[in-house]
Design goal:
The protein is of the alpha+beta class and about 325 residues long. The protein is built from 14 helices and eleven strands. Strand 4 and strand 5 form a beta hairpin.
Length: about 325
Amino acid sequence: MKTIISFLLIIFILTDSEAQTFFKDKFTHTYSIVARDPVTGEMGVAVQSHWFSVGSIVSWGEAGVGVVATQSFVNPSFGIKGLELLKAGKTPQEAVDELISTDEGRDLRQLAILDSKGRSASYTGKNCIQEAGNIAKENYSVQANMMLSDKVWGAMSTAFEESSGPLAERMIAALKAAENEGGDIRGSQSASLLIVKGESTGKIWEDRYIDLRVEDNQHPVEELKRLLKVFRAYEHMNKGDLAVEKNDIELARKEYFAAEELFPENLEMKYWHAITLFSNGNEEEAMLILKEIFAKDNNWKILTQRLPKSGLLKEDGLKKIMDGIK
C-alpha cells in the first residue's frame, strides 16, 4: 500500500506529458559509471539497480566510439542515438544536450555519455527521484538516482580515481563504494559490466571485450565481482591455448596455472591443461592431474575416450592414459 501511495504522489506532481512518460518507460532507478582507461583505450559501463536485468537497457557501447548509460525513467533510444551522434562528430556534451532538448520526459531522465577521447558529459533531470546527482570528469562520469544518501556518486568518483589496475576492476570498485554509502534506497537486484575496446577491429565479437550480467541476485555487485574473476580465469585459459598454438609450452603452463589459481574448483580448466601437457610430452605430470579429475567425475574419462575421433588426442595417447589409470 505504501508503494502505491508513493507512486500516486509522484504522478500527482508530474505534468501530463511526464505522466505519460512515467508509464511508458521502464523504471531503472540506479547508479552507474561510464569510464575509459587512458592507457588501453578501453571504455565501459558498470551499473547496479533494484530492477530486473538492468544491463539490458541501461548500458550501450561501441568500440572506437564511446559508451552510454541511460537510466532513471529510461529512454532506451538514447543508447543508439548517443553513439550515432558521437560517430557524427558530436562531443559527449553536444550529444547529451541534443538528446535531452528533444525529449518530453527530460525532467525524469538521467544520462551519461563518454567518447573514445575520454571526454564525458552527464545529466540529471530535475524530477529524478532523490537522492540524485552526477559528476562528469575526464575519462569517467558517475550518476545515481533514488539513492539512500547523496554521498553515493561522490564516493563512486573517489573510489574510481583512487583505484588502480584494469578498467573493469576499477569500475567494480566504484559500484562497491556506492553500496558502502547505502546504494539504491530500495535495495539490490541486478548489475552488469560492459567493456568495449578503444579501437574497433571490425569484429563485434572481439570488440565487445567484457559483457557480464547479473540479472536477479540479492547481492548483485558481489556476484558481478565474482563473475569478473571467473572471466579473468578463462582469459588466462585462452591465452594458454594461444601459447600452445605457437608451441610456447612454458607460457601455456604459466597461463593455465594462473587460471587454476583464480578458479581452483573448476575441473575443466585442469582437464584441458592436462591434455595439453600430455600431448606435448609431459605425460607423467599430465597423468597425475587426470587421475585426480577422473576420481572426482568419471564423465571426464568418458570424454577422453572420444577425443581421438576429433583429432584432439592420438589413439596411442588414449591407450597410454587408459592403461595409466587402471
